[in-house]
Amino acid sequence: GGVIAGWVEALQLMNAGSKWRLHVPSELAYGGQAVGSIPPHSVLVFDVELLEIL
């Protein structure tokens, strides 16, 4: 378990206070594996706001 690779990459590039829309290709998410209601080879889209870095 853990965080998908696309999140790890994006969060390392974000600055505190920034808001990004992430389009994570399947290769950096779940690939060919279905997870719950997410079909295989899905591009995932997230709206992320990084409030602060501790």
UniProtKB/TrEMBL annotation:
Q: Which UniProt keywords apply?
A: Isomerase, Rotamase
Q: GO MF annotations for this entry?
A: peptidyl-prolyl cis-trans isomerase activity
Q: Which domain of life is it from?
A: Bacteria
In the UniProt record, does the keyword Isomerase occur?
yes
Domain PPIase FKBP-type: residue ranges: 1-54
Q: InterPro entries under this entry?
A: PPIase_dom_sf, PPIase_FKBP_dom
The reaction(s) annotated as catalysed by this protein in its Swiss-Prot or TrEMBL entry are: [protein]-peptidylproline (omega=180) = [protein]-peptidylproline (omega=0)
What name appears for this protein in its UniProt entry?
Answer: Peptidyl-prolyl cis-trans isomerase
- Origin species: Pseudomonas aeruginosa
